[in-house]
Amino acid sequence: MENNFDFIAIEGVIGVGKTSLAKLITERYNARLVLEQFEDNPFLPKFYDDRERYAFPTQMAFLASRFKQQQKMLSKDLFQQMTISDYIFEKDRIFARLNLDDDELALYDSIFEIMTGIAAKPDLVIYLQASVDRLMENIRQRDRDYERQISRSYLEELSKAYNHFFYNYNKSPLIIINTSEIDFVSDEKHLDYIDEQIFNQPIRGNTQIHIIPD
Questions:
Q1: Is the pTM of this model over 0.90?
Q2: Euclidean distance between CA atoms 4 and 82, whole angstroms
Q3: Domain for residue 154, yes or no?
Q4: Burial track 19-50 (b if 16+ CB lie within 10 A, e otherwise)
Q5: 214 lies in some domain
Q6: How many domains does the chain have?
Q7: Residues marked as catalytic
């Protein structure tokens, strides 16, 4: 059996490896790669310094940027049949619920509800999980200036919010992979196994992949 997808989205908490996996799959299948443009958000460094003050402008900047990308994804690429992205549009609301106060969230939702109805819908979502310890280590290793302020407590909050969201997610077939003890970047056998499960195994509802590290 071979699974054919037009649009695969890879999701997970900061530092889990979603962009790395998106790039690796893109290279294998000559797909179109769409990456979240988080570095273009001028409010993000300020948000990590002062979460309460800069949450709303940070969120609205992300919402506008992601929606523009979603509109571009709706157009077909004649040379690359499959699109791989390192986020889904609905993830934006995970952060909004976590960071905005009630009045800000109400205003945000009025805009989000309009946009989400016309955003691109993935044929498959891959949700990468990892322990907070692993996330902290990954963030430490890549050493981005603005991520140095990310606290363990914020990652714990975010992980809980992501788990709740995806355990109730039903808009697309979903694969859940725990990456705490594996390394699909350095170990090609781990990547091969993930590839096999995505493209050559039946996917019904929510599927969890368990990879036993060597």
A1: no
A2: 9
A3: yes
A4: bbbbbbbbeebebbebbbebeebebbbebbee
A5: no
A6: 1
A7: 86
